[in-house]
Each structure stands twice: as C-alpha cells, then as structure tokens.
Amino acid sequence: MEVDLVYLWVDGNDPAWQKKHSEFTGAPMIDRSADCKGRYVDNEELKYSLRSVEQYAPWIRKIFIVTDNQVPKWLATSNPKVEIVDHKEILPPESLPCFNSVIIEHHLYKIPGLAEHFLYANDDMLLNKPVKPEDFFTPEGYPIIRMRRRPFNKLVVWFRDKVLKKPLGNYNRKINNSALLVEDKFGKYYGGKPHHNIDSYCKSHFVHVVELLKDKFSGTYGHHIRSNEDYQRSVFHFAALAEGKGKLKYVDSHTSFQLAIHKPYHYPRLEKDDPMFFCMKDGPDASDEDRKRAAEYLADRFPEKSSFEK
Q: How far is the CA of 174 from the CAs of 102, 130, 153, 180, 227, in angstroms?
C-alpha cells in the first residue's frame, strides 16, 4: 500500500503574509480562537515533525506541504520525496486568500499526484514511536478513524445553547455541524470528537463525500477565516463510518496526546504516557515564552537533522 502524507504549513512570522492578512481582514490577528497568533506562528514544528516521520515512518511514499506562496527556509526542496503545493493549485478562486485551514482541508484531494491512501497532519503533530501502514488503514484499505471518548450529546448541546446561553466554541461547533450534516444525509449521528492528531483518509471516498455534500460545502468556501458555519474535516470520517468505509478506534493519552504548550505540567505527562502520536498545541493562551520552551523540547527530543533539511 502506497501512503502519502499531507501537511498544512504557514509562516505567520512572515511580514508579507502578515500584510496580506491584515489588508484582507481589515485587522491584525486578535487573541481569540478563530484568528489568533497561535493559529499561524511558525515555531519550526514542521521541521521536527518531519524528523519524527523519517525516524518512525520511513515507508511514507511522498510528503506534500500545502502553503500560501511560502517555503520553509530550512527545507531541502531538492529532496524528491517532498513537494510544495500552493493554495492556488487546489483552492477555488472564491477561497483566496485563505486563512481558514478548514476550507483548505476540504480540497486536499485535488493535490496533483496524491496517493489513494494518505495521512493528514498539522505541522505541530508528531510521531513518538515506530508506526506501520496498518496502524492507519485496515486490510480492506479503509481508514482507521481515531476519536476521543468525550462524545457530544445533542440534548446537552441544545440546552447549553438555548437555555444556558453558552454556545459551543468555534472548534466544537464545527465538529457538531459535521455530525448533524452526516446525520441528515445518512441517518446516523456520531458524537465522537476527533483526536486532533495524524489522521488517515482514502482519496476516492473523500471525493465521494465532497460530491455528495457539495451543496452544503460550497456555501462555506468563501469563509476566508474560520466561521461557526464551517464543517470540520471530521465530516469525512463521520461519513466513512456511516457508510461502513472506516474503522472506529477510541484513543486515550497513551495513544494520542495533546500537549498544550502553555501548560508546563503536560511535558512530564507526555513522557509518562509515551503515546504513538503527540501534538504541540498552540493557541490563544500561549505566550512566546511557552513557544520557546516548546521549541527547546522538540530540539532535544529530535536532535538529528533529517534528509528534508538543507
């Protein structure tokens, strides 16, 4: 089985990118979940993620890095195993410029030369131990879909929203949108939350879902910044489960660990739990000091340069 790996990457430290962002949005990044420094800042996590991939998953066929007219300064673009894909190559005109990873994710299947079986990761997602293709795909070739055991309950969501007047935040609302859309289309509701780490997909089923739900999806493609009306990529996994084309596995911190970089006590927990994957989660609560600590940790965890670096 040939398996590719796709990353999204942006250098939010780039003055040209910052100028484009502020000119288009009419404002600098503000400290909120949907559009904050932590969404875009480059702490060189991608460099260490690639080191982890070379160390623990050398069987990956090709790596695609989707960017907005940018290239990591340390990346060895001469390496035939890695390829830069610009937003313009896969996004429709109404989506450009795009500062919304949700919309970019909906168009990953358009990457030229992408294998039928592919993994998807943010640049802050890393491997922590050796993995094999069968850790991501069943013998039938279906994706293994990892979720956390904290399911949404439709009644609770309604009560929070309508009675307590405490609506879901942007991230959870997008997941709930996806669950409700799949329920409407397939008659099955999945309340699991994504594990927010490296995921697996089949390109043919991805295309199938895009075609099936294009009337709903197309109305969101003009959302240049994250919106509460978006459909998170979990929609592709929920649909795969509904159609019997995916295998559900629940995770715990020994499998998939989210390290919030503004929480120092997460570091010893990561070492103790020793998971298969971990994510260095940035966000509106993180400071530059937190990012410095995260960078030092990754440099110590993966000290050897990979073939993807100059």
A: 9, 32, 15, 10, 8
DSSP character string of 219-288 = TTTT-SS--TT---THHHHHHHHHTT-SEEEEE-TTTEEEEETT-TTHHHHHHHH--SEEEEE--TT--H
Residue 102 phi/psi, 5-degree rounding, is: -60, -45
DSSP 8-state symbol, 306: P
CA distance 191 to 177: 11
The CA distance from 47 to 65, in Å, is 12
Q: What's the DSSP call for residue 163?
A: I
Residue whose C-alpha is closest to residue 39's, from 84, 98, 94: 98
C-beta of residue 53 within 8 angstroms of C-beta of residue 63: yes
pTM above 0.90, yes or no: yes
Preceding peptide of 139 cis, ω within 30°: no
Q: Are 134 and 1 in contact (CB under 8 A)?
A: no
Q: Residue 200 forms beta bridges with which residues?
A: 119
Tokens of 70: 């940018």
pLDDT digits (tens, 9 = 90+) for 220-273: 999 998 899 999 999 999 999 999 999 999 999 999 999 999 999 999 999 999
Instruction: Show Cβ contacts of residue 257 under 8 Å, excluding neighbours closer than 6 positions.
Output: 128, 269, 270, 273, 275, 277, 278, 279
Please name the residue ranges forming H helices in the chain: 15-25, 37-40, 45-56, 87-90, 101-105, 154-158, 170-186, 203-212, 214-218, 234-242, 266-273, 288-301
